[in-house]
Every structure is written in C-alpha cells, then in structure tokens.
Design a protein that fits this description.
The structure holds two protein chains of two kinds. Chain A contains eight helices and 20 strands. By secondary structure, chain A is an alpha+beta fold. Chain A folds into two domains: about 220 residues, 3-Layer(aba) Sandwich (Rossmann fold), CATH 3.40.50.300; about 110 residues, Beta Barrel (OB fold (Dihydrolipoamide Acetyltransferase, E2P)). In chain A, the strands form four sheets. A six-stranded mixed sheet of chain A has the order 6-7-8-3-9-10, sandwiched between helices. Chain A has a five-stranded antiparallel sheet with strand order 13-12-11-14-20. Chain A has a five-stranded antiparallel sheet with strand order 15-19-16-17-18, with no helix packed on it. In chain A, helix 2 packs across helix 3, helix 2 packs parallel to helix 4 and helix 3 crosses helix 4. In chain A, about 40% of the residues are buried. Chain B is an all-alpha fold. Chain B has one domain: Orthogonal Bundle (MetI-like fold). Chain B is built from eleven helices and no strands. In chain B, helix 3 runs antiparallel to helix 8, helix 5 crosses helix 6 and helix 6 packs across helix 8. Classes of the chains: A alpha+beta, B mainly alpha. At the A-B interface, strand 6 and helix 2 of A face helix 7 and helix 8 of B.
C-alpha cells in the first residue's frame, strides 16, 4: 500500500470561488502532518482532495508514487475519519469495521481476524455486537478509527476527529491517537484541525493555512519559536504582535528602545515584534516596558495581564501571582531579547 | 403539548371531538352499522345479521378482494421500484434537470385520475401494445397513479440522507453499486416502507380510473362496492366496504411493523 501524500500545486474552486489556491505540500511516509487553520482556510478541502470527494481544477495529488487525481474515492485505498464519525447506523460495530474488507471481497476468515485486530487496537472488542446508537461519542470515534484502520490504509485522513468530544475525552483520545501512530509507524496521517493544541501535540509537522493558502509549514518547535509571519505567530500559540520601527541593534516600540536581533531587516523599516505572552515577565529586567493594567484574568495556574503600553496592549502570562496588580495600576514588564522574533510588517494579517 | 392549562386542554379536546369525530369517525361507524343491518329506517339500523358478511367473503366478493390485493401489491412494488430508481437517478442530476424529472412524476397526481384512465385506454387499445381487456391495464393504471407518491416520498428521504455515509463507504473501498445496496437503500428503508404503505392504501381505494379500464375477469373490490350501492344494495355494499377497510388496515399495520424494525434512530 502506497504511503505518503504529495500535493502538486493543487487548486480547488467552486464556481469562481477559489477555496484552495495552488497547494504544494508533501507528507512523508509515516509522518503526521497537521493542517491547521481557521474555518474556511481550505484545510478540509485539501483533505477532501486527497480522499477524492472534490476534484482539483488544476494540479495533481499523489499517494506514494501513484497519481490519484483522476481515481474515484473507492480506488484510492485511504482510511478516513470525519468529525461526525458517519458510522453506518444499521450495522453493528463489528459489521461497521468489516465494511471496507467485505467491500473488497476479503476472505471470511481474514475479515474476522482483521476486525478482531482493529477492535483490539482501539479497545472496542467488548462492544462488537452493539449498534452505533448504543455507544457514547468517544466510543463511536474509536469504532470509526477501527473501521478506517481495518483496511490497512497507507494513508489515514482525520478531519477534525476530536471536535465533537468534550475536553476531557479529547486529551485522552489525543494520547490514544499518538499511541496508534507508534503502533503503525508506516502510516502517513493527514490531520485537519483548527485546534493548535492538537496540532502541536500530535504532529511531526504542521502546515498552517489561511484563506485558501498555505502560510507556513514546519515542525511545531520551528513554528512556535520562529514563526514566519504574523498569522502563524498568532494562530500557533498566540502572540503579542507589536508594531515597531527598526533601528541599529534594536527596534523602537512606542518610543521605547527594545533590544532584539535585527539581522536581515534594514534600519528604518517598519516591522512587527512577536513575543509570546508567557515570555513576558513582571518587574524590572531587560527590554523594560511600562504601562497601565487594563485587565487581569485569573486562569488557575497563571494570571494573564493586559497592559496598555503606548497605545498597544501587551499580554503577559505570569505564574499565579500572590498579589496581582489591579485594574489601572502602573506596572513594568520585561522580556529577554532572545524570546522575541522580528517579523516583516503586516504582510499577512487576516 | 402546546396548550398548558388544564381547562384549555379540555376545550381543545372538545373542539376536536365536535369537529373531527363527526367528519371522520361517524361515517365509518355508519358503514360498520349498516354492514350488519337488513333495514335502516329509524335512528339506528335494525334486523341485525351477519349474512352480508357471509356473502361479502365468498364468491365474486372474495375474487374481487383477491383482485384488489394482487393489484395493489403489484402496483405498489412496481411504483416503489420505478419511483426509487427515478429518485436516486434524479438526485445525481443538476438542479434544473432534477426539477424536470420531479415535475414529470407529479403529473399523474396533477391530472384527474379519470384522464389518466382515459389516456391509458386510448394508448393501449391497439396492437402492438394491446393491454385493453387484460388485468395488466388496471395494474398499469394503478402503478402510474401511485408512482407519484412513491417518487415524492423517496426523493424527500434522499435529500435528507447525510452524504457522509456514502463518502465513508466510498473511502473504505466500496463501489457505487455496493454503496447503494449496503448503505443507501438500508438507510432509506424506513421511507421505502412508508411509501409502500401509502401506495398500497391508495391503490386499494382507487375507483375512477379503474372504472374505465377493468375487464370482466379483473374486478377490484371498490368497483364491486360501487355497483352494489348503485343498484341499491346498500347493506351488502357496506359489508364489502368493511372488508376492504379491514384488509387494507391489516396490510398497513404489517407494513408499519416492518418499518419500526427498520428505523435505527
């Protein structure tokens, strides 16, 4: 079974409306690639182009070495799990899992063995005789995954698989998916999500999408520590995006000189300074900013402060404070120069 | 319940009782009463007997019941097959073309059934398509008339069918024919049985087109009821009507039992 996915400038349009704009992306065999983006960013369309449910207006889709652009869905040999599970309500769990095998006329003995295997892998063996309506959401999700894995696909497509689950189940299923991938190291997984936590947790690489285009692609650490643009910075992990003017050996933010690495940016240019809220500290330190507290949110383990500095709001996530500042207090913030990244100004803000 | 206060609820039931019972239940009760009677000159029928039923369940009457049942079952199955096929095919068409198909299938409903009967009579009275004088022209007329209902209810069910099921099946490697037989039709089964029940009930009661077409050896029960009452045999006609109602209800309740088994949610 071919593994790995390659998009070769794939575009999809409905009427005159371009929903995927020449996507170039390669998912290596055995790799987990998250397609991360807000709704309407084209991420689900990309997944459906791989599954064969939308036809690209241009470009080719490859599974392994095979060009599948013109193949109908049933000849592509991929596993797919969607948000609403789409379990067949008239079939029992075991028959749902066996569906793909029977559709391919697999021998009976082998169907039985592979169904047992897939149910075992997802921990659903005890529920084989149930109907889908007798299962909870999390259990239905496991059956949907078992059904997709039973055909031993080279490529697994997951379309927002956890969005219908509540938060506690979600983190459990996330660990479960990571374990499944360790057990099936050759399967390439394309994971569509709008949730950056899921993407950061599970993916080997993340492709960030916005408005039908690929914005950035890299490992979670790369995208988090050195985002390429403002959209990626704010969508992956959240960030303070501060408008600055580049000087020599630093930048000027609201009249305050700030030390950061300015390599590659011409002096005098306008740029955006990206600082993660958790990298901002309270009190004296390097790159000191003084401002007025406009809001304090207690989030259990942390306090988030919103501080107005020279007309801009700076967010700071601080380990829970014994004596947090109040609304209207003047406070000093600071951050280390190596925690800040200078981005080209406003080219991509959506 | 839309109405909350106890008094208002009683008032609603009272209105229901006054308006609907006389309109719907009472005529049926009158027929039931008449079917056991030999005279009805006072407020209530008199001369109670089961003789009407004895003659309504043998001889010509029994033949007519069998004729009606065979016609209705055959016409319903044909209508269901044709209507479902057309609805499945139309669902794949573009919006504009689908509307043309839908309009085509509503036509027998929009046209008076007498006209449908007449058109079939004119169309099939000459070779090579000589059906006039055979039972097939009656079955054909019933099929044409009830296919509209089958097509309408099945195509409504198809638009409600979540495409996610078909897509899941296709991604698992199922060819379109396999998806149709193993996923789409089983999911449509509750609507198919509902449509079958509706078609059967309509066909059992069809008179106007049948009157123009039936050959002497294929007389459905409604025709017999009509001719009995036409010659003044009201009580015998009532007994036949009760037999028709009972037969229809028995089949319908069997169909609805199948339907309950077939619904998953």
């Amino acid at each position: 079974m071919s593994s790995g996915i390659r998009f070769d400038s794939v575009s999809v349009a409905y009427g005159g409306n371009v929903v995927l704009d020449s996507l170039d992306l390669t998912v290596e065999p055995g790799e987990v690639m998250a397609l991360l983006g807000p709704s309407g960013s084209g991420k689900t369309t990309a997944l459906r182009a791989v599954a064969g449910f939308v036809r690209p207006v241009s470009g080719r889709v490859f599974l392994g070495e095979r060009d599948v652009t013109d193949l109908p869905p049933y000849r592509r040999g991929i596993g797919m799990v969607v948000q609403q599970y789409a379990l067949f309500p008239h079939l029992r769990v075991a028959d749902n899992v066996a569906f793909g095998l029977r559709a391919r006329r697999t021998a009976r003995a082998e169907v039985r063995q592979r169904v047992a295997e897939a149910l075992e892998m997802t921990g659903m063996t005890a529920y084989a005789r149930r109907h889908p309506r007798e299962l909870s959401g999390g259990q239905q999700q496991r059956v949907a995954i078992a059904r997709a894995l039973a055909i031993r696909p080279g490529v697994l497509l997951l379309d927002e698989p956890l969005s219908a689950l509540d938060a506690r189940l979600r983190s459990g299923m996330l660990a479960e998916l990571a374990r499944l991938h360790r057990e099936l190291p050759d399967v390439s997984i394309l994971y569509v999500t709008h949730d950056q936590v899921e993407a950061l947790t599970l993916a080997d690489r993340i492709a960030v999408m916005d408005r039908a285009r690929l914005r950035a692609c890299g490992t979670p650490a790369e995208l988090y520590r050195a985002p390429a643009d403002e959209f990626t910075a704010s969508f992956v992990g959240g960030a303070n995006l501060l408008p600055v003017t580049v000087g020599s050996g630093g930048v000027d933010f609201a009249g305050v000189p700030v030390k950061v690495d300015t390599a590659g940016v011409a002096a005098g240019a306008r740029a955006t300074l990206c600082v993660r809220p958790h990298a901002v500290g309270l009190g004296e330190g390097p790159n000191r900013l003084v401002g007025t507290v406009t809001e304090v949110q207690w989030r259990g383990a942390t306090h988030r402060l919103y501080v107005a500095v020279g007309g801009q709001v700076v967010m700071a996530d601080l380990r829970e404070l014994r004596d947090p500042p109040g609304f209207g207090d003047d406070v000093a913030l600071h951050f280390a120069p190596e925690d800040a990244v200078l981005l080209p100004a406003g080219v991509s803000r959506g | 319940m839309l109405v909350h206060s106890r008094g208002a609820r009683w008032a609603v039931w009272a209105v229901f009782g006054v308006l609907f019972l006389p309109l719907f239940a009472l005529p049926l009760l009158v027929v039931l009463g008449a079917s056991f009677a030999t005279h009805w000159s006072g407020a209530l029928p008199s001369g109670m007997t089961v003789a009407n039923f004895r003659s309504a369940t043998r001889g010509d009457a029994l033949d007519a019941l069998t004729t009606s049942l065979v016609t209705a079952v055959t016409a319903s199955l044909l209508a269901l097959a044709v209507g479902t096929w057309a609805a499945l095919a139309a669902a794949r068409l573009k919006e504009r073309h689908r509307r043309i198909v839908d309009a085509l299938f509503v036509l027998p409903l929009a046209v008076p059934s007498v006209v449908v009967g007449l058109s079939l009579l004119v169309a099939f009275s000459k070779p090579p398509m000589l059906l006039n004088g055979t039972r097939w022209i009656v079955i054909l007329a019933h099929t044409v008339l009830v296919t509209s209902f089958a097509h309408q209810s099945v195509s409504a069910a198809i638009t409600r069918l979540d495409p996610a099921y078909e897509q899941a099946a296709a991604s698992l490697g199922a060819r379109p024919a396999y998806v149709l037989w193993r996923v789409r039709l089983p999911l449509l089964l509750p609507s198919l049985t509902a449509a079958a029940g509706l078609c059967f009930a309509l066909s059992m009661g069809e008179l106007s087109a049948t009157m123009m077409l039936y050959p002497p050896d294929w007389t459905p029960l409604p025709v017999l009821i009509y001719s009995a009452t036409d010659r003044g045999a009201l009580f015998a006609g009532s007994a036949l009507a009760v037999v028709l109602m009972a037969a229809t209800l028995i089949v319908l309740s069997a169909v609805s039992r199948v339907r309950n088994k077939a619904s998953y949610r």
